[in-house]
Amino acid sequence: MNLSRQRVRLIFIEKERPRYEHLCAELVRCFGPLEDLPVHVEVHPGEAGPDSGELLTKLDAWGHPILGIFDSWGNINVPLSLMRRIAHNPASEVITTFGPNWFSREQGRQMASEDSNPETLDMVFGGREFWSPADAALRPDER
After folding, report:
1. Distance CA 123, CA 125 (A)
2. What are the backbone dihedrals phi and psi of residue 67, each rounded to the nearest 5 degrees, phi first?
3. For the whole prediction, is pTM greater than 0.85?
4. For residues 35 and 28, is the Cβ–Cβ distance under 8 A?
5. Measured between alpha carbons, how far is 138 from 23 in angstroms, rounded to an integer?
6. Residue 112 and residue 106: Cα distance in Å, rounded?
């Protein structure tokens, strides 16, 4: 597979300190010392949505193939602009997963919050023309 530490870099970002520490421990438990692997592995503290673009720039990744995988565990809020940038980078792909009812849960969280911020949903989905608030009178399973 022509793996090398210079050619393949796996970058993980985790915001929550306990999960960050657990991820680091799991990687070592499953694969041994990370510096002994045939690929370069890094775990960064931070928030994947807002921090990935800057980290990819810092690592000089733009212009090289990138496979960006963003999982909605918790509340990832990956900007559509970042997904577009990765998708337009040569030989790159971006995958963003949303758990069941993510949109309804996120909208409900936004509506319940004192500092309701629909701009977050605009950032993730590209603007109000691509989403609209569900009728609050509907049951959650109907939204």
Report:
1. 6
2. -115, 105
3. no
4. no
5. 39
6. 10
